[in-house]
Design goal:
Layout: H1 3-29, H2 33-36, H3 51-82, H4 100-129, E1 136-143, E2 146-153, E3 156-161, E4 179-183, E5 188-194, E6 199-203, E7 208-212, E8 218-222, E9 228-234, E10 246-252, H5 254-262, E11 265-266
Parallel strand pairs: 1-5, 4-10
Antiparallel strand pairs: 1-2, 2-3, 3-11, 5-8, 6-7, 6-9, 9-10
Length: about 290
C-alpha cells in the first residue's frame, strides 16, 4: 500500500470516529431534562396544571417538523444525486410541463399537516382558556412600573400595592421585588388589567403570557402544583423603566398563604387608581404606599 493510500485510509478512519462520536453526543444530549422539555423554561413538567400539555404540544410539534424536514432534505439530496448530469450526457433532459400526481401530493400533504397542527393547537388552547370556578381570584393591575394585587379568597378581600423595583446590581435585590402569592393546589383566576399603557404578564415557568390592555380584562386560569418562587416580568415594552418591571410569584401552602393575607390591608384598589386622561405618569408607581 502506498503512502498516499495509507494517508487516505487514516483520514477515512478519523472521519468515521468523528461521525460516531458526534452521533453519540447528539444521542446523549437527548437524555437531558432540558432537551426532553424542548428547552422550555419550566422548572418541572407539572409546575401548573397546564404546563404538561403545553410542553407536549411544543416538543411533539418540533419532533414532527424535524422528521418532515429530514425526509424533505433526503428527497432533495436523492434527486440531486440520482438525476445529476452524467459525464457522457448530451443535449437537454426531457422537459415536463407538469406532473399531476406529484402536484396533488405536494398540495394535499401540507394541507393535512396544517389541519393537524391546527387541531392539536386549538384543543390545547381551548383547554387552557376554559373558564373555571376558581377558589382564588386575583385582580392583577399593572402600572408603570409596578403591580397591584387584589386578592379574593374565602370571603376575604385584601390588596397589596407595590412600588417599582430598582435594580442596583446588589445581591438580594430579587427578594425585594413585588411578589404575587398563590396557594399550591388551589385553582386560580388571574384577572389582568392595566392602569395606564399596554403591559404583558409573563411567568416563564408557567409557560403562559397574556397582554394587559387598558379598559379590557384578560384572564388566566391555572392551578399551581409546585411550591417555590418563580420569576415574572412585563413582556411588553411599556416605557423608560420597563426593564425594572419585575415581580416574583411565590407558590406556598394554604396556611402560609392565609398568613400572608393577614398581613395585607382590607379591600381592593380598583379603577380609581387608574391613570386619568391627561396624566403623564402614575405617581403611586414611584411613591411608597400611603403617600
Amino acid at each position: 500500500m502506498s503512502s498516499q493510500d495509507r494517508t487516505s485510509s487514516r483520514r477515512k478512519g478519523r472521519a468515521k470516529v468523528m461521525a460516531i462520536a458526534g452521533a453519540g453526543a447528539l444521542l446523549l444530549t437527548g437524555c437531558s431534562a432540558e432537551v426532553q422539555r424542548g428547552w422550555l423554561p419550566n422548572v418541572e413538567r407539572d409546575t401548573t396544571n397546564h404546563t404538561g400539555m403545553i410542553q407536549d404540544l411544543w416538543v411533539n410539534s418540533w419532533i414532527t417538523v424535524l422528521l418532515i424536514g429530514i425526509l424533505t432534505w433526503g428527497l432533495m439530496l436523492w434527486c440531486i444525486i440520482a438525476y445529476r448530469r452524467r459525464k457522457n450526457d448530451t443535449g437537454f433532459p426531457r422537459q415536463l410541463s407538469y406532473n399531476l400526481p406529484i402536484e396533488i401530493f405536494y398540495t394535499a400533504v401540507p394541507l393535512v399537516l396544517v389541519l393537524t397542527f391546527f387541531t392539536f393547537s386549538d384543543s390545547t388552547e381551548k383547554a387552557i382558556n376554559t373558564q373555571v370556578d376558581s377558589e382564588l381570584v386575583v385582580d392583577v393591575r399593572a402600572k408603570q412600573w409596578a403591580w397591584d394585587y387584589n386578592y379574593t379568597y374565602q370571603g376575604q378581600e385584601k390588596y397589596d400595592a407595590t412600588v417599582q423595583a430598582h435594580l442596583t446590581g446588589e445581591e438580594g435585590v430579587e427578594e425585594t421585588l413585588p411578589t404575587l402569592y398563590l396557594p399550591v393546589g388551589k385553582s386560580v383566576t388571574l384577572e389582568l388589567n392595566s392602569r395606564d399603557v399596554i403591559h404583558s404578564f409573563w411567568v416563564p415557568a408557567f409557560l403562559q403570557k397574556l397582554d394587559m390592555i387598558p379598559g379590557k380584562t384578560n384572564y388566566i386560569y391555572l392551578t399551581p402544583q409546585v411550591e417555590g418562587r418563580f420569576d415574572g416580568k412585563c413582556a411588553e415594552l411599556c416605557g423608560e423603566y420597563h426593564s425594572e418591571m419585575l415581580f416574583n410569584v411565590q407558590v406556598v401552602s394554604e396556611a402560609e398563604f392565609l398568613n400572608h393575607l393577614a398581613t395585607l390591608k382590607d379591600g381592593h384598589i380598583g379603577e380609581e387608581q387608574d391613570r386619568k386622561p391627561g396624566e403623564v405618569n402614575q405617581v403611586s408607581a414611584h411613591a411608597s404606599e400611603g403617600e
